[in-house]
Every structure is written in C-alpha cells, then in structure tokens.
Amino acid sequence: MSAEPPPPIDAVVMWVDGDDPHHRAKREQALLAQGIHSHATAATRFRSVGEVDWCLRSLLRFAPFLRHIHVVTDDQVPPLMRAPEALPAAWRDKLRRVDHREVFAGFEDSLPTFSSRSIAAVMHRIPGLAEWHICLNDDVMLLRDVHPDDWFRNGLPVQRGRFVRQPHLRWSRRLRSAWRTLS
What we know:
alpha/beta; four-stranded parallel β-sheet; two-stranded antiparallel sheet; 6 strands
C-alpha cells in the first residue's frame, strides 16, 4: 500500500534587483525621507549577480514536485521570466511573479519597503499560495534532487538541528571569567 501523495507544495522566493536604477532611486528616496544613513543599506547589500536565475533554475530542475514558484518582487521581472517563450512549457506554468503591492494591499503606506522581514510577514497574502510552502531568498540554490519529504513529514515541516546546551557560553560563566581577568 503506497502512502498518500502530499498536498501541493509551493516555493516563495524573495528578490529585488538592487542594480535596477529605478529601484535604487526608490531606495535612496525612502532613506532620505526617513533621514537614514547606514552601512546596512549600502549598495553591496543589494547587488545582483544573476543569482535569482540560478535559484529559479535549481528549483525547477531539482524540485519538480513544486506546484508554483512565487517570486515576490518590487515591480521587477527576473531575467529568467522576461522571455517565457524560451522556457520549457512545464517551467513557464510554474513561475509566478508577485508584486509587493499585491501582498501589501491595504497597507500601501508601508511601501516601498526594503525589509525582508516585513515582506516575510505578509507572505501569507500571496494569491493562491499553497498551505505547504518553502520560503527562500534569491541566493539559495539546490544542487541535487529533493523530494517533498525533505521538507515535510507527517504533515509537519522538517526542522533540522537540535538544541545543545553549551555551558561554557553561558553569560554568567563568561562574566565571572571577565571579572577574574580584571582582578
């Protein structure tokens, strides 16, 4: 007796082309309006080297079970999606572009946003998003075949890792050590 197939699984990829002059101007204008100047907003943090195409290609190639791949972006189109006729039909049908305005509908005063955390907070508002979905940034690439049970088992997301107590890192121990050094 075979196991029941998993429900539909989607992927969500957050991406912006930080090299796009329109996007850069929008970011600079928002920073000036808020009086923000920080290294956290340096151009190197937004530089694009084509990683989104490799991310999407790897998902299409190594995770064929994905129903849709939603690319959440700010009024931009990833290069791979600019010429859909050049893609295999099966790939074309899986790729979906979702603009920030769609997921922030009703919260337009929060736009533009350059915070991946705020975008992740409204990801559940992606139209047609499967209940089971995988969230990725554009610099994540698969290198080999993956299967639904690599991500979900028994109706729950797979969580790797475990909690390990590391007494030597406890703040009280570090503090005592620092005091001894000062004495």
